[in-house]
Specification:
Blueprint (H helix, E strand, L loop, with lengths): L1 H27 L27 H41 L8 H24 L2
Helix pairs in contact: 2-3
Length: about 130
């Protein structure tokens, strides 16, 4: 009885391995009708002149438009970074002007004055970078 159980177990494992190898082979085989594997050709969309030369003037215009778009994006990124810096400075300032529990009125007013001057300098520096 033990030998029958052993044989069943061994043949079952061999069958499972065959199914696994067969599935792998099927998955790796090239599929002829799959649109994902078909090569697509892209035609050149540039207009050509009568003598067969490419019109580079339109390419130059496109290049100039791309350059201006890049410059606008750079300006936008710069202003975004400056807004972020201003936001961080405002958050720092709000935390800095909070009165501490063991601080006297005179000490707090003195520290508040220094923080105001520091904030003005930092905001001025951020604006100068624009």
């Amino acid at each position: 009885m033990k030998s029958v159980v052993k044989k069943v177990a061994i043949y079952s494992m061999a069958g499972i391995m065959q199914f696994g190898l067969g599935g792998t082979a099927l998955a790796a085989s090239p599929a002829e009708d799959s649109p994902a594997t078909q090569q697509q050709y892209i035609e050149d969309s540039r207009p050509e002149a009568e003598n067969g030369q490419v019109n580079f003037q339109s390419d130059q215009v496109n290049h100039e438009e791309d350059q201006s778009n890049l410059e606008n994006q750079a300006d936008s990124d710069k202003t975004q970074a400056q807004k972020e810096r201003e936001h961080l400075e405002n958050e720092r300032y709000k935390k800095a002007i909070q009165r501490k529990p063991n601080e006297s009125d005179a000490e707090w007013q003195k520290r508040l004055q220094k923080e105001n001057e520091r904030r003005e300098q930092n905001l001025e520096q951020i604006k100068q970078e624009r």
